[in-house]
Amino acid sequence: MKELCVIGSLNMDLVTTVGDFPKPGETIFGDSFKTFPGGKGANQAVALGKLGADVLMVGKVGDDIYGAKYLEVLKNNNVRQDGVDIEKEISSGVAIIKVNNKGENNIVVVSGANGKVDVNYIESKWDVIVKADIFLFQLEIPMETVVYTMKKLKDLGKIIILDPAPASKLPDDIFKYIDFITPNETELETLAEKKIDNEDDLREAANILFDKGVKVIISKQGRRGAAIIKRNEYAHVSGFKVNAVDTTAAGDSFNAGFAFALAQGKILEECVKFANAVGGISTTALGAQEAMPSYEVVRKFMDEKK
Q: Where along this sequence does the record place binding of K(+) (predicted)?
């Protein structure tokens, strides 16, 4: 199995459950409050660790109780943490999350130490980074760092997966470094600057990214599953029916499942099917990382759903 490396954010998630989201200016009472380790980068790393992958996390935490706790979390979930340093005199990243009674969420992120994952830091960790084969990126560390690191890795022939979240417009030169990009519909609309109302729109948006250099698009479609889109190919892979409680880390879990199967040498359709299962299971309990499944749980789930 190929080695994996996640380069990205580590946040502590502060989660409140509510009946309905408050309107602007409205004060409501929440139902509960809990603290969970999160951040898109660390979510993907922990999901991989739980699946049994050999995975390295690269990022930063702050000099606070959340940072110390996070190093413990990585260790307990089989994630190598020699790529993670504590940044002095700054907080760890935090995400303030509200989850309503439909399992929907909205999130406010404060970057903290994640904003200090700069090019110099990547250089300081390069010897350990370059040992991996497959790399997962997101957009919660500085864009300059993401582009620089992708280019340097691509020059070495490494495999690069980008989860383009949170949704934002990307510099055109980044696309040629990406082997697999995994947007949901909102993120794809942002990247292509095109409204998507049907499958034809989806294909047109995909072609815009192909023209910029993207090789393969894995379009996440929630409970419907995902689509594998290449320049002249389109295949839909159905999702799995689950009772969703919290969708907070579904996309991160999907990416981890996809990368895990890819590292095993599975064909694309099998990778996406496995990713759909991991993502689906992750929505069945509250919290980002707590609901992420082991490999055995995923295999049992997929066998039962056949």
A: 246, 248, 282, 285, 287
User: Cα separation of 121 and 125, whole Å?
Assistant: 6
Task: Check if 252 is active-site.
Answer: yes
- Among the listed residues 54, 64, 163, 252, the single catalytic one is 252
CA distance 222 to 147: 28
Complete domains list, the chain, with CATH? 4-9+40-89+113-304 (3.40.1190.20)
* Residue 249, helix vs strand vs coil: coil
Share of the chain above pLDDT 90, in %: 83
The DSSP secondary-structure symbol of 181 reads: E
Q: For 53-73, how does the pLDDT look when each residue is reduced to its tens digit (9 = 90+)? A: 999 999 999 999 999 999 999
Q: Read off the DSSP letter of residue 195.
A: -
Question: Is 251 annotated among the ligand-binding residues?
Answer: yes
The single-letter code of the amino acid at 268 is L
Q: Is 276 annotated as a binding residue?
A: yes
Cα-based angle 42, 146, 183 (whole degrees, multiple of 5): 70
Q: Mind listing the pLDDT tens digit for each residue in 191-203?
A: 999 999 988 899 9
